[in-house]
């Protein structure tokens, strides 16, 4: 019986106006987003190579991450070239985009955004009247008068409806992957493909949560218009409100000093230790280690505290927002793409270590902190195992459990639904 | 009859469940956003005060000619940031910056209006025509001796009024909170900007009511209408503006700024090689040396024999008066003049290239801005941020003020350098160098634009929104005239 309901749901959806419009929208959006982000990535890659040639001071940086095509996250900050000056001063080379202010006013239209905001919205629009609509047209009574269990009926509707909704997205996603694999500028290895697979899986589960939410709302309301109003407000609360208030709350619960104050600390420490440095350097055989220690401005309590406060704020944000599906999906997507807070923390640590290493090496006279020969900066991205262990699995679990809970709640609500 | 329709539409909406849901969500979100933003603002103000004091202390302590140029003057947080975040002033690329807020940007009143109330506008109006047809009430209304224009206008006025209730209530709560919060000190100009922003927001919200009405009068059933309306909303609010900056880089590709910078550096190097820059300089200095040797003879030879570390101690400004000092001062002045003369064409070329880069950047931003401006949502964001003093116009003003300040400081330090007879002064108090006297140093001050100027800047954006309003109403009207009421 469940298969009959499923087939009926698929057929009905398939011929509906809604299916046509939403399919078109998701295909167009996914392809446009991937194309636009591909162009953006290629541009940034070129720029990165331009930036790299300069050799005034030792530099640290990683090229733009190809998976930023899907979730750009913090990639702009990660794929910077950082100039390492004496005394632990680290400055970012100014890039193209930092100049165009419009990028800051609007959200980045990457796939993460398309799925998280727009397709989640479409999922709700797809399912908001799946029960109320049937009730209003009178078909719900007819169906339920047959010997079918309500849970089965709901499951059939869910499977049929969701497969119709997700199909265009999957097709568009595959098409986008084909296009990407044809692009000469995007080099993906096997680990990247696994990450893309996991990103896709995460997207499907995330959309399933929203589809089920629509179903749940439909099961607890009597009329489609009420159901729609509730669904859309739920969308606003879950996609925008929950993560953003969580973020702002985290910043207030775990405040961090301003950037300027950190720079002041570093500069003050630098100026303060200059006398000692000069004295040591004037000796016949200066103690390199001692010099390095005096010159390393990033080991004192204040700067360490600054770094720690940022880490605490990041953790607090994860804790406060992680329950919301949109936040869990954002963390999952950006971490998988190597553009998330996890990667940022790891990268910063690597740069700081490199800065410490440079301090212990003999210096060329004249150049600003130029070490001869400067060891190249090397950085290894977080592995899939690390991503999964530090939050990835939890985020997957959050999405899955929420999906199941919402569906279970819909079944419960539907048990007592009056089909008249 | 018109008032009857207005009243009916108004009461119809008021008694609907979506009104209660909308009112609750809007009020809660607005109040929450204002409370959070106000707290964030008070933290920013504290930060600003601490940081300014720190910066002053730092400059007093270590002020030097290079240090002045590096330190960008701090800006007090704009009071209206509490309701419209707009653009940030700080450059957002730095190694130590805090990335956490970038993951989930804070929401503000402008967000509540542009996302939630616009969506609510559609929810209120998507069935205003086709819903009445489905209920059968449309035929009854139209069977009266009433022009369809009157019906449509009445519906619009009544519906928009009911839609604005949640907004006005939210505004009231927000204003009360802002007034009571001691950390947020709004002046008259801030309140009037807030009022202007509120009026513009009301127009923006009513635009979405019109959009829903337009879609409704073009649809037969409300399920069809809501789908169309919501998709239109997705495109206008979520898709077009966000694509703007990226499409503009496609449509208007400009040379990479990094590349241009690189080219500039190459040009300078080439120029130096081609013109034999250093050689020329050395030649000119040699000539100068010769001139001095002829003129002063042994005195100049004595000067030349001084070890470089002691030159200033013996012939600097503070050295005891002597013939040697007088000659040394004159010699160094002439040598500096040679330096600046030979540097002049190079500096000019550099300035020209920099101006070109700035122009290209501005043009690209302009293109991006115009592409996004296809959407009324983008226009509202521009308008709101400009009215709040956190938009493009104020960023431009701040940039100009900072540039002017930069010129002031460089002039100041040049004067100081000339006074001290030095090429470069570093002023470590605890080192041997004599510190730079910076008691009369210029201070940065930035006056926000007055309200009329802000309104003038945001008028074109308002114009676009109104134009869309007229367009939507016209289409709705045509659709309604031809609408089959059965």
Write the layout of secondary structure elements.
The complex is a heterodimer of chains A (420) and B (486).
Chain A: H1 2-14, H2 17-53, E1 59-60, H3 75-78, E2 82-84, E3 90-92, H4 102-105, H5 111-127, H6 132-137, H7 139-144, H8 150-182, H9 190-220, H10 224-253, H11 259-282, H12 288-295, H13 301-321, H14 325-337, H15 341-359, H16 384-415
Antiparallel strand pairs in A: 1-2, 2-3
Chain B: H1 2-14, H2 17-62, H3 65-70, H4 100-103, H5 109-125, H6 130-135, H7 137-143, H8 148-180, H9 188-217, H10 222-251, H11 257-274, H12 277-296, H13 298-305, H14 311-315, H15 323-372, H16 376-388, H17 392-420, H18 451-481
Helix pairs in contact in B: 1-8, 2-5, 2-8, 5-8, 5-9, 5-10, 8-9, 9-10, 9-16, 9-18, 10-15, 11-15, 12-15, 13-15, 16-18
Descriptive notes:
- The complex is a heterodimer of chains A (420) and B (486).
- With 420 residues, chain A is mainly α.
- Chain A has a 3-stranded antiparallel beta sheet with strand order 1-2-3, covered by helices on one side.
- Chain B is mainly α and 486 residues long.
- Helix content of chain B is 75%, strand content 0%.
- Chain B contains 18 helices and no strands.
- In chain B, helix 5 runs antiparallel to helix 8.
- The two termini of chain B are 22 Å apart.
- About 1% of the residues of chain B have low confidence.
- The interface between A and B is large, with 101 and 88 residues.
